[in-house]
Amino acid sequence: MNTVLRREDGIALLVAIMATLLLTALAGAMVLTTTSETIIAANFRRAAEELYAADAGLERIIDELRSVPDWNAVRLGLVRSSFVDGPPSGLRTLPDGSTIDLSQIVNLANCEKTVSCTDSEMNAVTPDRPWAAANPHWVLTGYTPFGVLLTAGAGNSTIYLVILAAASPGPGDPAVETLALRAEAFGSRGGHKVIEAALARTDAGVRLLSWRTVR
Amino acid sequence: MTGSARGFSLIESIVAMGIMLTVTAGIFGMVHPGRRTTAAELEVADLQQRLRVAADALSRDLLLAGAGSYLGPHDGALGLYLPPVMPSRQGATGDDPPGAFTNDRITLLYVPATAAETSLLADLTPESQTLQLAPKAGCPGGANLCGFARNVSALVYDEHGNYDLFPVATVDDGLSQITVSKPPDALSTTYAAGAKVVEVISRTYALRTDPATGSLQLTTYDGTYNAEVPVVDHVVRLSFDYFGEPLPPAISRPLSDESGPWTTYGPKPPDTTVKPTAYPAGENCAFARDADGEPVPRLATLAAGPGLVKLTAAQLSDGPWCPDAANANRWDADLLRIRKVAVTLRVEAAAPMLRGPAGPLFVNGGSARGGLAWVPDQEVRFEIAPRNLNLGR
Description:
heterodimer, A: alpha+beta, two-stranded antiparallel ribbon, 5 helices, B: alpha+beta, 6-stranded antiparallel beta sheet, 5-stranded antiparallel beta sheet, 14% helix, 24% strand, elongated
């Protein structure tokens, strides 16, 4: 035992281990910072992409709505966009493997619940839906992977687009036909952007009354 | 003394110390710059995050600027009635003078998703701070003024270019009245019954010196009596450039039509017999009348093409004035041209020990010596086309 304590053969190993630990800690901190920085930057970029995808989807639907003679049929869900990828309910799988449920999206927009909403729930006043009885009762109008809307060669997209329509919270002039639209873009890693717009039909075509980002 | 513990000779000690010193010097030679780089990298990450937060806040509000109401007779984007993007600080306190142009302050107005939209039931005289409002239909529980609440900012505007922003003090739902905590800015303006009253969000972005650190920070101000709120620290540069419609406003549908918008942008001219402002009867800041009484634009054509042109400080602060040149709350009609805003934003490292000498890399010099510990200022420039100012494009 005494001889072991007095021998100094291990000191180099000890110094080397301590030096390695110190450098590892520094390198670890550095790696952590740079990877989280990369992830933050990627999330930021994706959020911007989702916002622009929702905006682009909105524009495409507005373009289609010009030729729809009766917007009542749209807000009742009787007429849908040409951008649909199956029945208007059920699960859709995003490229990153996560799933979204179309009925749930409609219910969340209507009453912030995942199950079906009653009329009184849809007419409840909340900060996002302050119009009470005039609250929009959203129905599905378009739902498609965003890539379908892109022209060939414009690149790939992992975003899924859902467009909802409803009566606008307040038609000022009953003679003017109005419609509210809600574009939701779902990206990978839970990314989600929502834009709401109100539009009116004029002699010249369609006029946007307002455009607001919701989240 | 046993043989195994006879001690070291001088030579042995010197050699051992030499080896030891070399090894530890090598280790410290690696650790020391590593530590400096780590500190610098952490600061770079923080700096980039501050840039992102500032860019995100500014772009969100810029995207929304001009969003208007969609109820009642004055629906549509705010840009049809008043300037939703102003190159100055506007609000209840610390207002820039009317018509001022600054390139480092911006005020943005937009109507949020709100039920608080109605109109004046009785004229609002200049000295009055009580607004008699038209009861709203469809409020839950038979209320008259759903949506209006204390501390909400109420925007009153008419079709002649008058507008005022009032912090709401009290709401009397039974009488359908709200009182506001300041009189109108323009002491000569009477808002006629029927003028639009709507909840509005006002955001003024500007730089101010942080009293705690003496450095500049980006702040936002809500147009009321509240103090400005810091958004991001250590911002050394903020400037805005404006790009706008080169063509003057035009009449887009007959003025006799019931509902608008009647113009491509800006307030529609009043009837030829009506003289609501200091402009001649039938005219306003955006439109004059020709010899036949037909409306002609008062604004100049800045370029022939449909593309946007850069708007200069002079163009945005030399008139023609809305509602008229004598109004205390006047604004340059060219502000209605704005379709795109370019933002330049520059942030610096918070710690002076990470900043080098003042120069191209650093606006404010610091105490860092040697490039390893330098975290240069970062500057971004981005352009936002506010959607609600481009609805017709």
